[in-house]
Amino acid sequence: MRNNFSSLLTLSAVVLMAACGEETVTRARVPKEAAPAAEAHGPGDGHDHGDHAGHDHAAAPGLKWTLASGWKETPGTGMRLATWTPPGGLKTEGTVVSLPGDSGGELANANRWRGQIGLPPTDEAGLAAARTKLSTKAGPVSVYDFTSEGASKTRLIAAVVKTGDTTWFFKLMGDAPATESARPGFLAAIKSLTP
User: Fold this and answer.
1) Rounded to an integer, what distance in angstroms lies between the CA atom of residue 19 and that of residue 120?
2) Strand pairing of 64-66 and 56-58?
3) Domain containing 132 — which CATH number?
4) Is the dihedral of CA 123, 126, 130, 131 positive or negative?
């Protein structure tokens, strides 16, 4: 009986040791799922968008907008959902990005934008002074306008709107005079935002 018990104990130890062997971890890169198809006339729908005046655009799922006459939209890459190009070959460009949550908050984002054009960080008071508000059907939009210092000035205009648990960032950035010329068309697209 003792031999059977000893054999059973030895067999159990062997089974447990085999079951408790070293685990291996395998990593693999899996492509992201494709985003749902954009609504008609949205980025990436396979249509040549050319002059977009009067056409609604959207990075599905999300907001819709209408670009001013002569503006062109192309699908974005990476985090960028779309790129807006003003007419006339101006040296400035609009971008559209949406991120979950508040993406660091207004002050952190404003200071990141300021850093992109060589400006020092600001504080809450400076942020409030730089902010204007627009009303849209998508909700209130905070607009920030910064211009770099020095001989060759860069201007950055950013519009931020929060919808549900997503924050949308619309940014126009480039040569200061070109960005000034494109500003009305950019703000017209922002004012057209709808859910």
Assistant:
1) 59
2) antiparallel
3) 3.40.1000.10
4) positive
- Total domains present in the chain: 1
In sequence order, the 6+-apart residues with CB closer than 8 A to the CB of 144 are: 110, 113, 127, 130, 131, 156, 157, 158, 159, 160
78: in domain = yes
Provide the domain limits for residue 117. 56-191
195 residues of the chain, pLDDT tens digit each: 544 444 444 444 433 343 444 333 222 333 333 333 333 333 333 333 344 444 455 444 589 999 999 999 999 888 899 999 999 999 999 999 999 987 788 999 999 999 999 999 999 999 999 999 999 999 999 999 999 998 899 999 999 999 989 999 999 999 999 999 999 999 999 999 999
101 falls within a domain: yes
**Among 143, 147, 131, residue whose Cα is nearest residue 180:** 147
Kindly state whether residue 70 falls inside one of the protein's structural domains.
yes
- Provide the pairing of β-strand 139-147 with 131-136: antiparallel
Report the distance separating Cα 8 and Cα 16, nearest Å.
12
Joined together, the tokens standing for residue 71 give: 């503006």
Q: Which residue has the tokens 């040296």?
A: 91
Domain-located, residue 33: no
